[in-house]
Fold alpha-L-rhamnosidase.
Amino acid sequence: MKNFKNIVLAICLLVTLVSKGQILPVHLTTEMAENPLAVVQNQPRLSWKLVSKESDASQIAYLILVASSEEKLNNDDGDIWNSGRVNTEKNLHIVYNGKPLKSETKYFWKVKVWNQVGKISKWSKTAFFRTASLESELNSIWIGAITKADSHLPEGRNYHTATFNREKKNSFINASDSLSRRSIMLRKPFEIKKEIKEAVVYISGLGHYELTINGKKVGNSQFAPLWTDYDKTVNYNVYELSSKEFQKGDNVIGVLLGNGMYNTLAERYTKFFVSFGPPTLFFKMKISYKDGSEEIIKSDETWKYSKSPITYNSIFGGEDYNANLEQKGWNRKGFKDADWKKVVIQEAPKGVLRAQTAPPVTIQKQYEVKTVKELKPNFYVFDMGQNLSGFPTIKVKGKKGQTIRVWVAEGLNEEGTIAQGRSGKPYYYDYTLKGKDVEEWTPKFSFYGYQYVQIENINYKEDKNKELPTLVDLKSNFIYNSAGEAGSFACSNEIFNKTHELINNSIKSNFQSVFTDCPQREKLGWLEEIHLNGPGLMFNYNLQTFIPATMQNISDSQRDNGLIPTIVPEYVIFGGDFTDSPEWGVTGVILPWMYYEYYGDATLLEKYFPIMKKYVDYLGTKAENHIVSHGLGDWYDYGTHAAGYSKNSPIALSATSHYYYGAYLVAKAAKMLGKTEDIEKYETLASEIKTAFNAKFFNTETKQYGTNSQFSNAVPIFMNIVEPQYKEAVMQNLLADIKEKGDRLTTGDVGNRYLFQTLARNGENETMYKMHNHYDAPGYGFQIKFGLTTLTEQWDPRKGNSWNHFMLGQIEEWFYQSLAGIMADPEKPGFKHFFIQPEVVGDMIFAKADYQSVYGKIVSSWEKKDGKFILNVEIPVNTTATIKLPVSKSSEIKIDNKKVRTGFDGTKPTLELGSGNYKIECKI
């Protein structure tokens, strides 16, 4: 998927081509994706952005054409759908309403619009979408080297456990060379006799695969397909190939398989042991010829397999490669495969085959060696300059059979060697040389969180010791999801700038198939960080197609009794509060609402309303007089105590507040969806929980909640649980505690967002500034002073395990919404209308942010200069914004050097503006 920054650049270029008074539809999407290859809906939704050179531009009508061929579309022949002129300002989520769509078919579309004065635009550029297969059409046959029955891999879900004794552990150890665990190569020769129009591949290789056609890799995915609970959902990928990928006569399909999360290993480090079966492949390629005929090549008993040179591959333990086992040309024509064995037909995974609509994980950046130390002769430690999720690429030369072992870690021991003690050990890569010239190798099926690389018994660049292999070059590959960046932020405060960088490096490191907690020891989808960091995630990244996949995983993982576990997919059952904690499970209720607010799309609320309801009902079964008392509480709250379970605040207060919040949001969803019975039920439930919460935790004499902690008082204010007459008193008690602690926080993973936003939304941004503008712990500045490049699990990195966690990154929401002031309007979701209301705090002299909303680019950039407050804003076409200025009511205000009158919201002067670019100046 294209990076969002490239999309923004393209849109900017298009604006220069739009003549005065014109409007132009750009960046066409189908089901939120640009030219998707697997649309599963019968009535997909079409959307576009709009650009215009003039201000106050908007759309009043559109006309869409959908055609069966690009030629017909170019001739304005909408043979599949001609919408006719539709009078509406709506340009998002237009439901297709033409002829019934066929599966596995490509359609082309374009749109033109009328602007606010009735002037018609040019046609947009052509977009397309391809419909997905019906499961019956896939006719999935799964093949591999060994059947599940013969592999003797564990059966059932009882083995999904993180706790085990030595005897049990040994029972899980299968030699990595066994066919049940081994990476295999599969090949299928085929012949092309006619001219190809196109070919479409449908593939799922589990755990992960690499597909080649005639030796050339198809696509740029790493670790495809994305992780799921394979007993519920199995993703398949779709690739569209042109005639250039093939040659007349003999051709070869090659597939390399690895274990991934589908089939973990017990050797070396592992967090848990799980197997859904041995490596397996489903493949279908539909070739369309220019003469109108078609041919289908699929996975069946005619394929052959052989063991690959990857002798060990574990998502948790590393990867080994023996170059002497390479079979040159194995995935090209002319290769002699007489020694290869026929594949076996395998038992299909239990999960439903679903087209992967979320973006793939790809190599996004590459880093060179920053510094290198030779700790002793031929013993090197390399600093790659950036902690990240990924794997190295090595170039080596040496004698046949020599092995180079590559250790990676995010930290160093005192003596300078790599330290894996906190992050899971042993983890390493072994490469055995074939002894011909310079050899280059990059692992394919394992990644780790690391910054440092340690290699022993080598020369580095120069062949000083002729008996040792020589490392010629080393690079570090940073992998993360290719969803694309949606925003940027910068300001005059260097701590905040560095904090923004730290957090986003950690988000990227954990932006994999799912949002993981850390890229080394766990790689698990702990749910709480998604909703607690949700606004920051959405401001920074385009999650339109990623969050629906997350909700599918949540739905798949929900137990029959309604429990949503803390980790999704639930590869391992930790048990107790580590499986069932309301602050984690309630993500299934909160996330559809966040998605609606940021993208203006209610489909997740509609689709997953039963999931949301079922979870709140589950919490009801755990409640006693509406009080829920289990869970982790404000995990990792700050203090002199050891980090872990909430210590500063009652766990029951945390659990019950989230029970209330879940019930409140379900009631709100029921109202929006018109579910009359549910409205009354959940509004009543929310009211009863609120009453019980206040009776249990509020002290009417002291006007404080729970233990009087920051979390105890902030959560009721944020969630509007506190009765209005007591709100100000509770707020003052909260502020008093912060001041007493030296303007420092005592909240944790869960409480940070509620504390930060309670302050921000109640006019206490100066307190937020003081709380974070320092280099002490707890604070982001301490991590910067520590010299880290990613955010860590604890405020003091020396105490925590992982140095690559984003769970404490909730300040991103404050950067965008408060410092830059870009604030969504819940009444007009998707930023159809929004607020720009920057906060000028401390000694800051500028802040700027941009956000690529579903309507277009929003910009808020302010500075204090020469006694003026200068604000530059950009408002997308077809939207409006309310500007709230941080100056006095009497300030003289100009827009583009012209004096203007303002409104007043009781605290700040306001402006109502339509689309365009504006420079607003105020005397201060």
Q: What stands out?
A: Residues 157-174 have pLDDT under 50 and may be disordered. The radius of gyration is 29 Å.
